[in-house]
Task: structure prediction
Amino acid sequence: MISPVIAEIKLQDLLDHTASRILLVQEDVFDQISLDNISQELNLILKWGCDGSTGHSQYKQVLPEGFSDSDIFITSLVPLQLSGKNTDRSESVLWQNPRPSPVRYCRPIKIQFKKEAAELSQEEIRCIEEQIKNLIPYEVNIKGKLFSVKFFECLLHVSYRLPLPWQARGSDKDMLKARKMKVQQQLRQELGLLVDQVKPGGSGTTNDGNTASKFFKYPDIAARITGINYSLIKRFETILQALSSGYKNDIKNFDRYAKDTARLFIQEYSWFYMPVSMHKILIHGSSIIDHAILPIGQLSEETQECTNKELKMFRRGHTRRTSRENTVEDLLNCLLVSSDPFITSLRKLHKKQSGHLSKEVLDVLCAPEEVGSASEDIEQSVRQILSSNNNSSTDSD
Result:
């Protein structure tokens, strides 16, 4: 459906097309393996969500009331894995998204020229959930067969209140304000970080994922500036790296490490109430991991945030401006083509730049299991990391 301010694809149609393109990508895999032991039902696992962006170019075109060229709200999905159950109830991975967080496979469901708001987000969630209830399986014949920012902010607020552990009253508030400014200035001077600064237009603060990542990357400097326990910062870094790595976590080891970290936090800063998001990860993180279908790191919302940059590029350089309908239609088509699984598979997969995983992170990761050929490259990289870590430990002994 195309209108002057909205472009939408029915969820059923988009999923059918996405599934068919993934199967086309994996034709060679299906030719080389036996499907006799795989059930006729394949499962395509996806993640979906909605996000808004601002600062888009404004065109000299008539707009209905309540809509704006400068604001775009997009609902999208990302395919993560195609798998099938074997006759012995084990699972075979037939296709694995090699880059679940970048924008390569982010498929648009709906584009609206509206400003992001809580009511709009809730309306879109209800709409998608209603379509999900009415989905029907896609049939095909194959070979004849039918949270780092919240941790970062918590440590900052603990740091501000170190001179005044409990409530600040009267003149104490001036001391608290001075302490906050000192920490902000030192983080700016030594790490180049802008923290707790309100963005122009009221669109949040400067505390984002990149800021948090750099903060935890230098725990010694962060501890010296903020006065926070070094071991606590290091433990938070380990937990966040393990969760965002995209690899499976060892539930028992993670649970033990996370709860030891929670005890350290309470021991050092019992006067500061632990944020809800931190409590969920440290206390209930292992249960969430245990019930998650895929590793937590593959469910990042980074994909949609990256899509916002492509939206601006496509709209500015690859859309007709002869009418509103043409502009919206071209924008939707650009996003569909750029995220098409078959076309994307033909593009060169750039080497992923990832930092070295520390021994502490590896200790809470699972040793890889043998899975389908589509994900062998991912599992092999973990084996190499674990192998190199074991060799270095042997040499040191």
